[in-house]
Design brief:
Helix content is 32%, strand content 25%. It is an alpha+beta fold. The protein has a 6-stranded antiparallel β-sheet with strand order 4-5-3-2-1-6. The chain is elongated, with a radius of gyration of 47 Å.
Length: 233
C-alpha cells in the first residue's frame, strides 16, 4: 500500500501528485517522453504566447545551433539596414561640404623645404660639418667661434656644441674689484652646478689680449652673428 501511494505521489496525472517528492525521486516518469522542460513560469508564458519551441534537456547542441541562427539573422538584418541607409543617402554625398585636413606648419616642417643660406646651414647640421662663426659686439667684431651646429631657426639663433671661442679685449691697467660686487662667491659653489670654462689669455701687444676657452654647449643669438664659414667637412 505504501508503495502504491508513493508511486501515485510522483505520477503527474495522479490526484495525489506531490511536486516536492517528484523533484527528489529517481523513479519519476514523464507522461510524454519528449516533453519540453521550462526553467520558470515566465519562460512557459513566453513559449505559449510566441509559440516558441522549447528544446528538451539533453539536446544542448540544438540550443547552440538555435542561438547561432539567431545571431546570423540579426547580423543579416543589420547589414541590410546599413546597405539600405547607404543607398538612401548616396545621392546626397556630393552635396556634403568637404573638409580639408589642415597641415601643421612650424619650424620643424618648414625646415624640410627651406632654400637659400639656411639650406646650407641645414646641410651643416645633417652632415655634422664644423663651422666658423664671426661674432660682433656693440662696437665691431668681437671674435669667432668654431663649433658644430645642432639646431637653428629663421632668426639665425644657433645651438652649438664643442665650441672653441676666441675673442680680443683690451687689458686693464689696474685690476680691482668694484665696490658694488660685494663679497666674492665661495669656491666650489658655482662650479658644483656647472664647471666654469678656463680662459686662456695671450698678449698681442698694444694693450690687446687674445682670449680663448672651450665650452661644451652654447646658445648664440642671431643678432650677434656676422658671417658663418665652413671649416671642414
Amino acid at each position: 500500500m505504501s508503495g502504491s501511494s508513493s508511486d501515485s505521489e510522483i505520477t503527474a496525472c495522479s490526484s495525489k501528485f506531490d511536486p516536492v517528492k517528484a523533484l527528489y525521486s529517481d523513479k519519476l516518469k514523464l507522461p510524454v517522453a519528449g516533453a519540453p522542460l521550462y526553467e520558470n513560469i515566465q519562460q512557459f508564458e513566453a513559449a505559449v504566447q510566441k509559440q516558441e519551441d522549447i528544446i528538451p534537456v539533453g539536446l544542448g547542441h540544438l540550443v547552440k545551433l538555435r542561438e547561432e541562427e539567431k545571431q546570423r539573422k540579426k547580423l543579416e538584418e543589420q547589414q541590410q539596414l546599413e546597405e539600405k541607409n547607404r543607398q538612401r543617402f548616396a545621392k546626397y554625398e556630393a552635396l556634403l561640404p568637404t573638409k580639408t585636413e589642415r597641415k601643421i606648419r612650424n619650424v620643424l616642417t618648414r625646415i624640410e623645404y627651406i632654400q637659400g643660406p639656411l639650406a646650407a646651414l641645414k646641410d651643416c647640421v645633417e652632415q655634422r660639418v664644423r663651422v666658423k662663426i664671426i661674432t660682433r659686439n656693440d662696437t665691431g667684431i668681437r671674435g669667432y667661434l668654431q663649433a658644430n651646429v645642432i639646431a637653428f631657426d629663421k632668426q639665425w639663433n644657433l645651438a652649438l656644441t664643442d665650441v672653441l671661442e676666441v675673442w680680443k679685449r683690451k687689458g686693464p691697467r689696474k685690476r680691482k674689484v668694484p665696490p658694488g660686487l660685494g663679497n666674492p662667491v665661495r669656491k666650489g659653489t658655482a662650479a658644483a652646478i656647472s664647471p666654469i670654462p678656463v680662459v686662456m689669455e695671450k698678449p698681442l701687444g698694444g694693450g690687446i689680449w687674445e682670449c680663448s676657452r672651450h665650452i661644451p654647449q652654447l646658445m648664440v643669438r642671431g643678432e650677434h652673428i656676422v658671417i658663418i664659414n665652413i671649416v671642414e667637412r
